[in-house]
Amino acid sequence: MNLQELSQIGEFLGGLSVLLTLVYLAVQIRGNTKVVRSTGAQQTHDAMTQLYRQLAGDAELNRIFRIGTRNLDSLTEDETGRFYAFWSATLFVAQNWLYQKDRGVLDGELVDWLSGVSSNFHADGFKTYWSGREYMFSSDLQKWVEEGMSKPLNPGYATLGPALKRGEAKED
Question: What is the mean pLDDT of residues 135-140?
Answer without folding.
Answer: 94
